[in-house]
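Figure 2 data, in text form.
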Amino acid sequence: MFGFLLALLIIDGALMSVVVLLQAGKGGGLAAMGGASAGTDSLIGGRQAATLLTKSTWVTGGLFLLLAVVLSVLSSRAQQRPQSVLRDLQQDAPAAAAPRPIQIPGTQPAQQGGQPAGGAPATGGTQAPAGGAQQQAPAQSGPGGR
């Protein structure tokens, strides 16, 4: 229906252009308002007989306006609710691999299999706390400390 009305609008616009160009000039208009015509007929606008071309201009102009309004209303109605483009991209994207653990400077990376970074098996002794962080004694400041 939209395509049919659009085609009708284009045909009506072409027909209206032809009808307007076929009309004979009246000798009035903006040029006559500047003093080119001394008669009061041009200012008041004498009534002239309506010709077939004048009537067809009014009909095609009114039809053009009506079709333009109807098409604008039809095109503004949404056929479906608008959706986010980003949502479509998220659905199409492949599943991402598991993120790598964050490496904090000054610590050893977490080892798989329970072996330390050197590759040698763990042998008793003291082990670093969970997460590989090193423990430090809290700094004490005296009365004159900074």
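Caption note: The radius of gyration is 43 Å.
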